């Protein structure tokens, strides 16, 4: 199936879904999509979701909700690769588990190193604002289990993803915030910390 098979309304719905995910880091509810499309009944929105699923743009997750797996090809001048946007990290599940992935977002290949795996993460909080990573931004993360001192990393602590500057000495790892908010303090852990990757790029929050 291809974009040519989509109705105009389905394409419009797909744009609304993409923009909603970019701003909220989650798939819109049926009611939210219905409102965005100007419909009075959720059935109309449901039919568009079914059309998008049939044509390979959406996929149903295990819990019955949808995720975006393919976007519209609206430009031929930029080559992109689809990168998973991670929503919340479910306790005890790998960060790339199906239920953690909210969408597949097209990212320019100029930001990607060949042979490396990446994911996107929406930033919450101001613990890294002095490093240019602000609340609402997205970060492109290169998947790695190890990091060098001074690199900004994504790590799992108590099944929550956190972004901090990495420092390692012996068996002690210190995760340092770089924030104008002095309430943020370093986190001290041992070397068995679960590093998920290093920050490769910051995508600033887009304001409406």
Automatic annotation (TrEMBL):
Instruction: State the source organism's domain of life.
Output: Bacteria
Broad EC category:
hydrolase
Q: Give the matching InterPro entries.
A: LexA, LexA-like, LexA/Signal_pep-like_sf, LexA_DNA-bd_dom, LexA_repressor, Peptidase_S24_LexA, Peptidase_S24_S26A/B/C, WH-like_DNA-bd_sf
Residues covered by the Peptidase S24/S26A/S26B/S26C domain: 84-199
Question: Where is the LexA repressor DNA-binding domain positioned along the sequence?
Answer: 4-60
Q: Which GO terms describe its biological process?
A: DNA repair; DNA replication; negative regulation of DNA-templated transcription; proteolysis; SOS response
Q: What is its EC number?
A: 3.4.21.88
The record lists the membrane-crossing segments as none
Give any GO molecular function from the UniProt entry: DNA binding
Q: Could you say which protein family the record assigns here?
A: Belongs to the peptidase S24 family.
Protein's recorded name? Repressor LexA
Naturally occurring in which organism (per UniProt): Lacibacter luteus
State the taxonomy lineage. Bacteria, Pseudomonadati, Bacteroidota, Chitinophagia, Chitinophagales
Q: What is the name of the gene encoding this protein?
A: lexA
């Amino acid at each position: 199936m291809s974009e040519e098979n989509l109705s105009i309304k389905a394409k419009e719905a797909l744009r609304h879904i993409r923009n909603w995910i970019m701003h909220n880091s989650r798939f819109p509810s049926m009611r939210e999509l219905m409102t965005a499309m100007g419909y009075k009944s959720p059935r109309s929105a449901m039919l568009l979701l079914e059309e998008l699923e049939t044509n390979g743009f959406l996929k149903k997750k295990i819990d019955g909700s949808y995720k975006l797996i393919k976007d519209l090809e609206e430009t031929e001048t930029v080559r992109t690769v689809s990168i998973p946007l991670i929503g919340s990290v479910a306790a005890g599940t790998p960060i790339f588990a199906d239920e953690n992935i909210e969408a597949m977002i097209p990212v320019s290949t100029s930001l990607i190193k060949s042979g490396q795996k990446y994911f996107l993460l929406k930033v919450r909080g101001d613990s890294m604002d002095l490093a240019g990573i602000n609340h609402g931004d997205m970060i492109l993360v290169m998947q790695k289990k190890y990091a060098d001192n001074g690199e900004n990393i994504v790590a799992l602590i108590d099944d929550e993803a956190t972004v901090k500057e990495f420092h390692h000495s012996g068996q002690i790892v210190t995760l340092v915030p770089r924030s104008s908010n002095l309430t943020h303090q370093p986190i001290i852990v041992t070397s068995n910390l679960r590093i998920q990757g290093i920050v490769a790029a910051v995508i600033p929050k887009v304001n409406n």
